[in-house]
Amino acid sequence: MLEQITDYTTEVNNFNPANAAELEAFRIRFLGTKGLIKDLFDQFKTVGAEEKRTMGKGLNEFKQLAEAKYQSLKEALETQPEKTVSKEDLTLPGEGFEIGSRHPLSLVRNEIIDIFKRLGFIVAEGPEIEDDWHNFSALNFPQEHPARDMQDTFFISKKSPADSGEAAGDIALRTHTSSVQVRMMEAGKPPFRAIMPGRVYRNEAISARAHCFFHQVEGLYVDENVSFADLKQTLYHFVQELYGQGTKLRFRPSYFPFTEPSAEMDISCTICHGSGCQMCKYTGWVEILGCGMVDPNVLENCGIDSTKYTGFAFGMGIERITNLKYVIRDLRLFSENDVRFLKQFQTEIS
Ligand code: PHE
């Protein structure tokens, strides 16, 4: 038994736990209710009276040693975090953390909004899930008219085929933010001067050049005596601000159900400045938006007197505007959230 005590004493003296769990294991091994010390005391009861005298002292000393060791180690572990901190060099700089960057589409959208805000346009928003009236009918798309095929629409199906209510195909993901123009005109009185940024959806196969959703900024200006010259001047100013002074523009006649006359607007290629490149397909020009004078039918559909008021509207895809600024050749990059792509647009986040 004495030998055992000597061995245990060495073990206790050398014990140096790495963590609280090891210390707890130590406590259970030596001081626990079924621990070694309890064992030794049990053995002690069975030895003869003479041995008891010599052993009793050694046993008690060992017990005290184990308890004291346990207490001091426990205290040391509890106060350790403080000790570690105070040992550190507090003058070292803190750990840096990475700040995210704005998405290129957000950067360009904000830039577009800023330019139009300076011209007195306000920002209007509306729902992405639209009814037929706001997305099509009010905008002069007659039912069954082939013009509806210009925008491949995602229709939202009814809860069940038997569900009554709106006609099937009445609810859709908006195909353009012109729907917000309708909502705005229905809800207020002219003059209107607003831009409508937002996400729109079209049922297109996803490729480098097309996606099933993209982002638009549309614009609307309705007042007395608004003319096509106002439209041209507004867009001229916009292009000079966005792509730099000297960027040329041209208007080509086009067709939209909700504008008459309608036009598509091209700008001189921002990449090659007219000398010819892949972006402009070697023509020197790139189309960036559709526009026109608001069709009187649309004004009347929204309760506006078309004999008194006229207006212009325009709409552009933010992805396209961004491509022409940053030369992004694959549309899919915009929605894949690859940080290697997004980090290239490091900006100060304010
Ligand atoms: N809504 C049209 C589109 O999405 C763009 C447009 C808006 C054209 C306003 C003319 C006037 O393609």
How would you describe the overall organization of this protein?
- The structure is a single chain.
- This protein is an alpha+beta fold.
- The chain has two domains: 78 residues; 242 residues, 2-Layer Sandwich (BirA Bifunctional Protein, domain 2).
- Helix content is 41%, strand content 19%.
- The protein is built from twelve helices and nine strands.
- Strands 1-4-5-9-8-7-6 form a seven-stranded mixed β-sheet, with helices on both faces. Strands 2-3 form a two-stranded antiparallel ribbon.
- A hairpin with a 2-residue loop joins β6 and β7.
- α1 packs parallel to α4, α3 packs antiparallel against α4 and α5 packs across α10.
- The chain is elongated.
- The two termini are 75 Å apart.
- Phenylalanine binds next to β8 and β9.
